[in-house]
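[step 3/7] fold_predict: job queued, chain A
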Amino acid sequence: MATRNVAILMFDDVEVLDFAGPFEVFAVTSELSKGDSLRDSFASRPFAVSTVAEHPGAVNARNGLSVNPHCTISDCPPPDILIVPGGQGTRQLINNSAVVNWIKDCAPTAELVLSVCTGSLLLAKAGLLEGLAATTHHLALDLLRELAPNTTIIENQRFVDNGKIITSGGISAGIDMSLHVVGKLLGTAQAEQTAEHMEYRIGNYESS
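[step 4/7] structure written:
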């Protein structure tokens, strides 16, 4: 099994559960997939999860949590799965051409591009939601409509799967979306095992 690189974008004022929830899902899935031997543990690891920021150094997430990303957008391994979380910081980041262009440049070669909460605003700014359906945090639906006038905005849905581009609603919905992706790539049994280990209510992630 080839290991997929999962890159989670980090920035100041990122919502904590937006990035920590998906991080936990993909990391736990890899942990549970380890074989008995050292060789098996590397061969069977489905995901290598890393956090990536624009610049080196700590990122100040919501409510004062300091996080040290693994790498920067200039030295990050090409992501197979790109995750763009949300939070108040997205309002400033949509005007950051370096980050928006990095998302845009990663998208063509990524297998999947995911957003959590208002991370969808950055996907919209990068032009990745054109002609698709998408969702976001319920308090940011109108803002997403402004940024993505050619996108069908879906309300009251945990996540929306367009195939390659998947967007989720607010905060905890990123866990549902991530479990859905695990099931999509590795099978329902693996997603259920991850959800059970996390003691997350099995079945939540099945809603699309």
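[step 5/7] annotate
The first strand starts at residue 4 and ends at 9.
The first helix runs from residue 16 to 32.
exit 0
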